[in-house]
Amino acid sequence: MLDELQPLSLTAAARRLGIDPFEVVRLLVVADAVPKGPFALAPELVQRLGELGRIEPPWWEGVALPNGEGHPGLKRIRAALGLLLSRGHTAERPTRLDNVWRGLEHTEQELLSRALHTLAEASLLSIEVTPIGQLVCVRDEARERVQAIAEGSDIPDSLTAAVEG
Amino acid sequence: MGAATSVRTVSDALAEVERWRADQEARQAAELVEVEQEIKNLESAISNLKQQLKALTKFRTELQGKASSLPSRRLERGHAALFGALQDQASQLGRREAMVAGIARQREEAFEKELKGTSLAAMVEEFRQFKVAVEPNLQSLPESYRSVVSEHHLRISQRLREHVEKIASAPLEVEADVLSIEVVYCVDAPEGVPELLVVVIPVTDRVHSGWYERIDGLQTWLSARVVQAIYQAARATGFTQAQAMCGGHMELLAIEVDLLGAPAEFVGAFEEQLGAILGASPELFAGQVFATGRRVDVDYVLPPEEDGAEVPHAG
Predict the structure, then answer these.
(1) Which residue of B7, B27, B70, B241 has the fewest C-beta atoms within 10 A of its own C-beta?
(2) How far apart, in Å, do the first and last CA atoms of chain B sit?
């Protein structure tokens, strides 16, 4: 009952925001709000960090994976690419990288991380490190290709390898 | 006729020659045996010396080999010694963390008792009643009532929160010996230009890989302070692309920062921040943990393998 009155530990703040505790520290530095005392963070501060870090609620509630045969991991990746496009995350509007997998099981988070980095190496996505964290977007010149991958065609071999890897 | 003069006969003379010959023959035969023996002895000695020479030559080769491999063996031993020491420190820190967790539990229990026995108890009960009975129906109240109730609840919450924060924000003091902990770091610059900062913290790598299943403790706090130093140094030097990449190295937490594009002063700023932050971390002091940064040779952390490649990095 009194939990909501208590300051949050680093781990509790990380759970609330859906990022790891070291990313919380990173945002504390950006916000110039690292506690002088122990890591006890007021709920309002944690909320502010979420806004500063452009942390979004999980994307996946009610999202169906593509139908048909195929590796479930690949379907998850295709769905993630579809979400990036439908939410308009192109060069003008990059999103926080971990927004893509927040709320998923750890293994699926790792899979998506691997896949998105693979697609960034293939110059289809752009992943940029910024003070608030890594941001991702679909490269403007690669929109059609990414759309095709999301629809299940033109899957790069490197992506298939990332799924199996 | 006088007595006959004894005259040596030819037979005697020849017989004497025969005896001489026989003597000579015997002596020469004996000498030959001796010489043969001497030759055999010498041959045996030569054979022994050859064997000794061969053994010494082999030993010399081995010594030369050892001398040439001394630098790499020094690195191997340095790597093992470094990580052995860090693993010892990690074990000690793990035990200290358990002590701190015990004190945290005691404090929580004491706090709950305190809430029941003081003037706060009435406020807590009021807070509880609001959450259970009032809040779910708040929207059904007229606006004027709603704002009065909400404002009152806000005041109660604020007072309770101040009290809770005061207790929860106090460091967890441990009565124990001071534990010295070293955060080790190095800079990899194979071509002379710094390419990678590697920090190894004497905590389990589960602090990062298994953070979701853990609660805060000394190991998380120490690691968080190191991460703070990295990002504060990045901020101070305008290194906007700094990314702390965490992974395990010999079951300890390793953090790497790719220095591609980093300003030249970043590493110096990190060293400065690390010293200042570790020297002013109340949660570590309260746990009687004295942590310092220590720069080491990169080859002790990432020793080159025989084929010239380094050991795998944390990822």
Answers:
(1) B7
(2) 137
Closest chain A residue to the Cα of B285, Cα to Cα: A38
Dihedral of the alpha carbons of A153, A159, A160, A162, in degrees to the nearest 10:
-160
- Tell me how far apart the alpha carbons of residues B273 and A73 are, in angstroms, rounded to a whole number: 42
Highest mean pLDDT out of A4-18, B1-15, B255-269: B255-269
**Is A96 in contact with A135 (CB distance < 8 Å)?**
yes
CB of B164 within 8 Å of a chain A CB? The answer is yes
B contact residues 195-214, partner A, Cβ 8 Å cutoff: 208, 211-212, 214
Q: Which of A157, A162, A146 is nearest to A83 (CA)?
A: A146
Cβ-Cβ contacts under 8 Å, B169 against chain A: 7, 35, 37-38, 40
How many Å apart are CA B34 and CA A22, to the nearest integer?
A: 91
pLDDT digits (tens, 9 = 90+) for B32-62: 999 999 999 999 999 999 999 999 999 999 9
Cβ-defined contact of A130 to B240 (cutoff 8 Å): yes
Pick the residue from chain A with its C-alpha nearest to B232: A29
Predicted ipTM? 0.90
CATH architecture of A72-164: Orthogonal Bundle (1.10)
Indicate the average pLDDT of chain B.
90
> Which residue ranges does chain A devote to CATH 1.10.10?
72-164
Residue B244 to residue A22, Cβ atoms within 8 A: yes
> A7 and B169 in contact by Cβ < 8 A?
yes
pLDDT under 70 in chain A at which residues? 1-2
Please write the tens of the pLDDT for every residue from A56-69.
Answer: 999 999 999 998 87
- Give yes or no for B285 touching A (CB within 8 A): no
Q: What is the pTM of this model?
A: 0.80
